[in-house]
């Protein structure tokens, strides 16, 4: 009897070792998830279903929430996390192509955002998802990042000149953007951004509404401030993996699954925006919106030449914008190019 049990134990042990060593199977990889509300947040909950889906791809995953995105980034860089979800701006050090989605003004609305997410899941773009040892294995929208101000008079770029804006100290692009618009950057980090704004350490923050409650920004808005309903960015949440720790097919399976979650993510965003008191919104005049768009196009062009954004991704995004709005000035045919085509 004892020898029979021993044989069974040895057989079970050998089978465990065999499965663990099978090529293409990743066992219990650690997925670190950024959510300002930690394990109780909507984005952490969204990835619980991802965990179940990954089992169908032969990958076991454990989830760990982070409410501090800087701590998450350190854990991912050190290899403690095998994969991590992080805001698109954080992805710049891992993949310039995909992080360009979070450049100012390149995605104008949630309809375009949905088209962009389809693009991200396309097999045609799969080669652009990997850079060095890292692979971007999916993305979902986090929402439009609006200027949230403590003075309703700050309702245009011109009126923002000289004002203080809270920026993330680790992201040089935010400082460049602030100075381009003649704003004074106040470096901090995302968890403390609300404290800085609410204590009058900054006149403005630019974040999606999904963090409005988490950072208690209504305290800084008070009775005199508001939310300028003209976003500077469309934030994304991107999932980056140490590619060598996963099967070769994992990335594409993950990106396609993440695409199936886009409408759910957009639903989270719309619900959060709908919950904002209507009196908090500040609307800019039409001529100021046109100036806003023109200024942001100039800014992105300047920053691309300086290496902050990927020109190929920007070209793809311009095509998507022009597909949905041919009236945009940037979409007008250029006479010099038309003349060149005629003479060739």
Written overview of the protein:
By secondary structure, this protein is of the alpha/beta class. It contains 14 helices and eleven strands. The chain has helices at 2-21, 42-56, 69-77, 96-99, 110-120, 157-160, 172-180, 190-198, 218-221, 250-260, 262-274, 286-305, 311-324, 335-343, and strands at residues 26-34, 59-66, 83-87, 130-131, 134-149, 164-168, 184-188, 204-208, 226-228, 233-242, 281-282. The strands form two sheets. Strands 1, 2, 3, 4, 5, 8, 9, 10 and 11 form a nine-stranded mixed sheet that branches. A two-stranded parallel sheet has the order 6-7. A hairpin with a 2-residue loop joins strand 4 (130-131) and strand 5 (134-149).
Give the SSE layout.
Blueprint: H1 2-21, E1 26-34, H2 42-56, E2 59-66, H3 69-77, E3 83-87, H4 96-99, H5 110-120, E4 130-131, E5 134-149, H6 157-160, E6 164-168, H7 172-180, E7 184-188, H8 190-198, E8 204-208, H9 218-221, E9 226-228, E10 233-242, H10 250-260, H11 262-274, E11 281-282, H12 286-305, H13 311-324, H14 335-343
Parallel strand pairs: 1-2, 1-3, 6-7, 9-11
Antiparallel strand pairs: 3-10, 4-5, 5-8, 5-9, 5-10
What labels describe this entry?
2 domains; nine-stranded mixed β-sheet; globular; disordered C terminus; two-stranded parallel sheet; D-Maltodextrin-Binding Protein, domain 2; alpha/beta; 344 residues
- The low-confidence runs, each spanning 5 or more residues with pLDDT under 50, are 8-26, 336-344
Overall pLDDT level = 87
Name the CATH homologous superfamily of the largest domain. Answer: Bacterial extracellular solute-binding protein, family 7
Oligomeric organization of the protein chains: single chain
Q: Tell me how many strands there are.
A: 11
Number of helices: 14
CA gyration radius, whole angstroms:
23 Å
Strand content: 15-25%
- How many structural domains in the coordinates? 2
- CATH architectural group of the largest domain: 3-Layer(aba) Sandwich
Shape by Cα distribution: globular
Q: Between the first and last Cα atoms, what is the distance in angstroms?
A: 90 Å
Q: CATH first level of the largest domain: which class?
A: Alpha Beta
Q: Helix share of residues?
A: 40-55%
Largest sheet: 9 strands, mixed
| Annotated CATH topology of the largest domain | D-Maltodextrin-Binding Protein, domain 2
H/E topology pattern: HEHEHEHHEEHEHEHEHEEHHEHHH
